[in-house]
Amino acid sequence: MKPSLEKLQKILALEAERGYDNHAVLGGLERLLDHWEAEARTDGLPENLIQAVIERVRDYSKLKESSRAEALEGLARRIQRSDLGSAFRIPKAKEKHTSIQQAVRRLEPDKKEALEIEPEIEVESESEETPTMHSDRLSSNGIIPQKKRTKVEPILDEITELDAPITVLEGVGRKYAQALSRLGLNTLRDILYYFPYRYNDFSLCKPINRLEYGETLTVIGTIEKVKIRPIKGGQREIVEALVSDGSGKLKVTWFNQSWQVKKLHPGMQISLSGKIDRYLGQLVMNHPEWERLEQQQIHTFGIIPLYHLKAKISQAWLRRQINKAVAYWAPRVPDHIPEDIRKMAEVIDLPSAFVQIHNPDSWEEEKEARQRFAFDEILLLQLGVLGQKRNWEKLTAQKFSIRDEWLNEQIKHFPYALTQAQKRTINEMRNDLSSGHPMNRLLQGDVGSGKTAIAITAANIISTQGAQTAVMAPTSILAEQHYQNFLAYLTNPISPYSALLQPSEIRLMLGSTPESEKREIRAGLENGRIKIVIGTHALIEQPVQFDNLQLVVVDEQHRFGVRQRTLLREKGHNPHLLVMTATPIPRSLALTVYGDLDISVMDEMPPGRIAVDTYVIKPRQREQAYNLIRQEVKTGHQAFIIYPLVEESENLESKAAIEEQERLKSEIFPDLKVGLIHGRMTAEEKDHAMASFHAGELNILVSTTVVEVGVDIPNATVMIIEGANRFGLAQLHQLRGRVGRAGEKSYCILIPDSSEQIENERLKVMKETNDGFILAEKDLEQRGPGEFLGTRQSGFNELDQAKLTDVHLIEKARRIAKYIFEQDPELTNPEYQLLASRLQHSWQSTYSDII
Prior knowledge:
By secondary structure, the protein is an alpha/beta fold.
């Protein structure tokens, strides 16, 4: 068979294999005629046969897909009837493919050689070293980027087969795969989900005589001349081209890219995209992206994606690989969200989203694509946390019921009247403990809102029925403080008839606790004599065993990971869990990160607490703050001075605690007692410093953020924070909460590193409000969720398109997740199979609090 007929057979075979989508040849099957007709005449094919091919192929794009098959099969029969084409065959179209291996067969080298009927596309490279990283051709093998997606039957198991190595893509061998791996691109999934970080809008195209300085657009023209000019004494070279379009001429330059001369030729029609600059009064375009005009424009027309890069990879090359992968694979990825759920959520289908995020037809469609992926992320998150909540609610736990009279008698024992928020929270906790299912409650409340009273009441309920409680705090200082509070309340009898616990039944266990005492505590927990143990990580790091652990209380829970809490819970059988935080949780996080927990909000302050006056001053006004301390000390009060560092650093200009404590003691406050506490001190040293400050033996305590959480010094009325611009709002608010705890007028002075930082957004917000919930929302907006997450779950910090501040999207996804679970609690129905697999894939490395 003649070469021209062999080539035609391969092209028509590929078109049939593709389902007659008119993509077997770049730009459509009719583009075949640009070259084939001349080859056919060279081969001596009869004119009537050539005309038959031209007639069928020329109108092919106008036919419906069902008619295209008939047209090509009729053409094949016509060729078979000729003397030259008896062996001419094309296969029937396949309805669907079942594996990556079948799809990859289209990309085999023998097909590639036969189907490269288009001239090479000339694509710029970002640097002199990168041209070898470019794919030299856009082969017409069916994976060419197209703006408009054709309907293709999905062939992939979206979960497993998208994890195929990136080398299944044509043109990506070992060398290129290594380059892409440096971007974290190792699989088909990685490529599809490697979204642009921004776009250039080259949809505007203007004649040269209407160009204006500063515009970013596309110009179409003909190259008149090209030359290389040496610069900087011959050390570098500049490629200059003159392009005209009939209306004017434009000078175009590429710096240090001499290889461009080999690709650019006078008479060549090209499209150029870039920014219009000015040089010596003349408009120029420097370092534009360009393509030959007759080729499909994927780099210089429309809205062009820009991807994050690393060395040895250019935008054009990476864009080419992603476009090829997206155009071929995206239409074949089945959507894991069923159509009825997509309509309910008002999001587009997954294949369209892939196409429009990588190669958008308009800004509106790009926005819709990002909304789809943002919805995916939040929906999977909601399904995960609600699934955990459902699993938790299936568990059984020991019931702890109490009478109203008993509870009211216990509440009277507090030295202050409980707020309505405290009473409401106690009732919520009481219902949990009597439900027969393990309590899983997050208690969030602002600094000083009275969370400790809730924890004490819960432990009291547990201990009165013979069971045990473990309270875990992040620092020895806070654990010691809890220990003293539990002792004060639970070991003092309310009346001669109502002694609660003996001091020996409440113990403190720290890393610094002597080993002999640890052995005694472990023995008491194992035989049940000790009812309440309070400690730090020592509770899970030590071989501690309980007789009947029924309540786990975790304070400042964001300081602990899920795995740490789970280790403590595993020491009992489905014990009740109460986690507490003094960092108010924004609503959006309460619905997502903590969506598996029941939440109690302590949004009311106890009587007597007054707002702390907050000021932001310049560093040169520091003496005013020192004078305030002197005045407060004279009236019998104390002060904190906080520094961001322990010791001076060559890399940071911030003051440090150790050096400043010496200066303050010797130069500023020689007549006062200035103590020091920081994270590098031993537990004994920190405990001694805090005990001295609490007892009034120190007037001023110099500290790092080690005092941020839970430290209760009622006599402290001044908080000075040096380098305040280096702290987040949550930290600043926690530190401010260390003063004003006894109803005395108190002050917080924020001193940034420099006068320029006075306008720091966080400092301005601190000055405006004392409301921790408002500050939490601001902190989430400014710094993201890290301040709130700690190490709770893997994945929450990895959201790409979704924002944890988007309450509207979160509420919609949560509503739809609940609907899905109502329809199919186990996600076993066929329409939810892909979603279930996607969910498992997404959450496979995430810890849960559930044992």
